[in-house]
Amino acid sequence: MSLATTSPRDERLLRLASAHGLGAIAEKVLARERLTHDDGVALYRNPHLHAVGALANHVRERLHGDLAYFNVNQHVNYTNLCNKLCRFCAFQRLPGQAGAYQMTPEQVADKIRAQLGEPVTEVHMVAGVWPKIPYSYYLDILRAVKSVRPEIHIKAFTMVELDQIAKTAKKPLEAVLEELKAAGLGSVPGGGAEVFSERIRQETYHLKISGDEWLAIARKVHKAGLRSNCTMLHGHVETVEERVDHLDRLRRLQDETGGFQTYIPLSFHPENSEMADVPGPTAVDELREIALGRLLLDNIPHIKAYWILMDIPIAQLALSYGADDVDGTVVEEHIYHDAGATTPEVVKRAELVQWIRDAGRIPVERDTLYNVVWSAEPELAPVGKPAPVAS
User: Contact 146/152 with Cβ under 8 angstroms?
Assistant: First the structure.
């Protein structure tokens, strides 16, 4: 790329990147060319995080300007019963163990009822996987949510949960998805992907579905007309090459279906798990994961800095390293707090707005599907219209 063909800002970025061994990658970024596996490995291994972050911020601002999205949501972790025995998990319990629970549909409804005074637009429901839970239960908890708050969007059931739900129902997943949608399911979260490497699966979560199976279920979810998120659990025993492969496999499925709307790197928390001896990721690691997600996942619109798993100042900083979303107000999250997360379990809407402003970005309240609910930017799309996402 000739410097004469770029803006002064692009020239500065290219000079910065070139000074730190990333000139060829910067040229691709500026030309909007897809980065390769080798490019991804080079970005992970480059010691100059500020240069990597500057490239990611360029893409982030090209797509979203200064906008930073959030929503008003609540979490319901309806059971911690689980037979997957993942070594990194501190949330799971077996029946009879201290703290084991399964909410009734009425208790799920009570959780929703408790937040009726808040402008919640989404409930995020994920939990453990227990084969003895009847299929009807999953339909009942969806209906219970809708009975209390009919207008709320339900984002529920990871690909791992959906695999078990279909097996319990003894029906094809395609049929199960239609019945779940009829009961109130609106979209699917991105958890349970972990790292797609079969080596990692055998070492840390061998009873859970494989990466190929996760992707196959996501494909069916998207074909059923449901959007989903996608994730990667990082910062434990995976290699750089395995991370890049994971991101590339997400990118290839997105090329096929277009169904992923947000990518969320999930930070490994070792506390209270069988892997407590493995040091978790640092703040530098977390920022690099955000940046690599934005640079490699060129076809996924949004990158989320999930503040529950980060110190809040790191999530704010991530808004300049590729992230354009900070998730929501949450309310009573257990999975990551059981694993040692020290962030609050709930924040007020006004706090999220202020965090975003303090980070130098423009807060935009969205619903689950990125329709604008409210914005500090008066010229943004009016209420009820999709938030603009440039290609």
Answer: yes
